[in-house]
Design brief:
Blueprint: E1 2-10, E2 14-21, E3 26-33, H1 38-53, E4 57-65, H2 69-76, E5 80-81, H3 84-95, E6 101-105, E7 110-116, E8 119-126, H4 134-144, H5 151-156, H6 169-182, H7 186-204, E9 215-218, H8 225-235, E10 239-240, H9 248-264, E11 279-285, E12 294-300, E13 303-308
Parallel strand pairs: 1-4, 4-5, 6-9, 9-10
Antiparallel strand pairs: 1-2, 2-3, 6-7, 7-8, 11-12, 12-13
Helix pairs in contact: 3-9, 4-7, 6-7, 7-8
Length: 327
Amino acid sequence: MKKCYLGIDIGSVSTNIIVMDEEHNVLDALYIRTQGKPVEAIKRGLSQIKDKWQDHIKIMGVGTTGSGRQLGGKMVGADVVKNEITAHGVAALNYMPNVKTIIEIGGQDSKIILLRDGIIYDFAMNTVCAAGTGSFLDRQAERLGIPIEEFGDLALKSESPVRIAGRCAVFAESDMIHKQQLGHNQEDIINGLCEALVRNYINNLGKGKDMKAPVMFQGGVAANIGIRKAFERILGCEVIVPPHANVMGAIGAGLLAKDEVGKKGQTNFVGLNMADCDYTVKGFECSGCSNMCEVVRFYRNNELIARWGDKCGRWSNLSDTSAEKLA
């Protein structure tokens, strides 16, 4: 059997899972819509991996990242649980050790990560303004009646760029409609939208930051060649899109898991059969002090496996959790 590692990136829009061998080759990559149900998304993904790979690979370790990393980590028995900045940085360095700037744009948020000599020294995240994310392009593509897959190619056909206000998604949409009414063609408007997103990104996340080459573009929006070309025009340098750009967070989690298992010599992974288990999340408000912490209890097949959310450790530090059953 081939020794492999799992990387799981649980986000608000998608849950990405990769299977990586010991040479860091990605054997499989899954993109699953989270749809507000991270537990179900993880189960669905691991069920697919179990059906396809169970007789061919042995999972040596697993890492989780993303906004749902703590929940996912408890669920699968993760060897390492890391934030998205670290995971994306590790994945980029694995592909290009001299990378200095990472642009990451997903469906609901975006990030910039600056590295020097292989070390992350600065970063910024945008989780507020929709005009700097993939959902902005999805909405405009729908309004224009164009499949989002064709958006980038159409932008490259533009011969007379149109400037569209991009500081706010609402203003950008109004300006786009205005440009349509003035008679500008679709390709020029699409190119203007791509440049608006890039200006929004640079003005918000890149403001005051030294965005040096080599520049790597990660996240689902990296597949849009119109956005990549707009970045290249504005930054004045090549923007590199790595293989599996949309699952780089999961790749980073897998790489971190491999390093961690190498140090401790064993994995905490509960096995692919966990995809067949029932999981339940139940919370309560602790009245032990004025903090009124919301404590989360996590059950596998009605057996309590973890608690978290308390500030004092009254609940999460209890070692014997097996006796507490779901009511």
